[in-house]
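Schema walkthrough. Field components (list of strings):
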Amino acid sequence: MGTALKRKAKKLLSSVKLRRTNPRVAVLGLLLAVDKPLTQDQISTRLGRNAPDKVTIYRTLESFVRAGLVHRAFLQERVWHFELADDCTEQQCHPHFTCTSCGDTHCFTGVTMPMARSPEKGFVIGHQRVQLEGFCPKCNPNL
Amino acid sequence: MGTALKRKAKKLLSSVKLRRTNPRVAVLGLLLAVDKPLTQDQISTRLGRNAPDKVTIYRTLESFVRAGLVHRAFLQERVWHFELADDCTEQQCHPHFTCTSCGDTHCFTGVTMPMARSPEKGFVIGHQRVQLEGFCPKCNPNL
DNA sequence: TAGCTAAATGCAACTAAGTTGCAAGTATTT
DNA sequence: AAATACTTGCAACTTAGTTGCATTTAGCTA
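Field assembly_structure (string):
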């Protein structure tokens, strides 16, 4: 990991009053570096030998979510991805795109969607998630 | 289960050329009866003593999906729901609403959403899923 | 800078969802 | 009614995620 990223991660951690531990710096630095959602397993693999325990990664991510640094994107096939929070409001975040060929997930930051309307009285829609599937530029057969 | 439902289930099964077995009639009949998405576990519980084996339920649902009778709604927290296919197109299905209080999931049949637009060239969006969370009429605190 | 303490880590064991292999049973076809 | 290909159920397994607990450590204070 680059020193600049490490520094940025440390800064972010103290800005949200989280203790600056090795696992946290490593995980947050990685998320900053890749700038796309990752599963716990992907995080673990990418950190390689120095990867913290699986449990620690989950708890680390949990603390980031509580601090508002990161949010979870629940995608298909019981895979969770984590990413830095950016343009997310209370009601909705950007759509997530998963490539059906390579499996990579991308954030469609800046793409806005209208909120769904309830089909009948009584429903209160608190949050909306939009998930997309298809081919990413890398796997697009027409490119 | 009502006899009418059982008959309808049997009819559906032969219309898609699936063998008419007890587990299939039971599961399909239940899905027809409740008219909302259910997890494998919910199906098992509702069928009670006569419930087929967990594996059989999964394989039964899989055969229904292949036959186009049923589709999967991937929701949060690695819970899958199954429901009868109705207004679903290649590109998208109706939004799914999950109540954060009671956990029940409802299909917002008839609610249409515009397809997301790719933020950059190269992405091919094949499918879009919209998931909603909030309070259902039963749990709405303002009602 | 040493010491204190609450917070964080790592290990082991567990739960829950879902899958695979295989032997035994059964719905259709002839 | 027999043959056979499709289905079922059991057991064992995999994967994602959680819990409890003993040990370690970040950051505060003297």
